[in-house]
Write a structure and sequence with these properties.
Belongs to the FliE family. It is found in: Bacterial flagellum basal body. This is Flagellar hook-basal body complex protein FliE. Keywords: Bacterial flagellum, Cell projection, Cilium, Flagellum. It is built from four helices and no strands. The termini are far apart.
C-alpha cells in the first residue's frame, strides 16, 4: 500500500467552484526578479575591498613584527598600495559629498 501525494490546488478545486478568490491565492507566483546592482552597491563593494586590503596589510605587518611572514620589502609595497587605495576612496567620497552639496544648493 502506497500513499500518493495530494495536490492542495487539485483538492480545493474539487471542493470549491472554479473561480474563487481562495483558490486564486494558491496560484503560482511570478518569478522574482532581482534588481540590477545600483550605485550604492558599487560604493559598498569598493569600501569593502579597501577594508579587506587594509586588514590584510595589518596582518602582514604584525607577522613581520613577530619575525615571521613575508619580507619587509613586500610588506612595504603592500602598505603603499593600501595607502593609495584609501586615499583614492577618500577622494571619491569628497567628490561625492561636494556634488551632493552642489545639488542641494540648486534652486528649483
Amino acid at each position: 500500500m502506497s500513499i500518493e501525494p495530494v495536490s492542495l490546488t487539485a483538492s480545493l478545486s474539487a471542493i470549491l467552484p472554479a473561480s474563487t478568490p481562495a483558490l486564486d491565492a494558491f496560484a503560482p507566483l511570478a518569478p522574482v526578479q532581482h534588481p540590477a546592482p545600483g550605485f550604492g552597491d558599487m560604493i559598498a563593494r569598493c569600501v569593502g575591498s579597501v577594508n579587506d586590503e587594509l586588514v590584510k596589510v595589518d596582518n602582514e605587518v604584525r607577522q613581520v613584527a613577530a619575525g615571521a611572514g613575508p619580507s619587509l620589502h613586500e610588506v612595504m609595497i603592500h602598505l603603499e598600495e593600501a595607502r593609495l587605495s584609501f586615499q583614492l576612496l577618500a577622494q571619491v567620497r569628497n567628490r561625492l559629498l561636494d556634488a551632493y552639496q552642489e545639488v542641494m544648493r540648486m534652486q528649483v
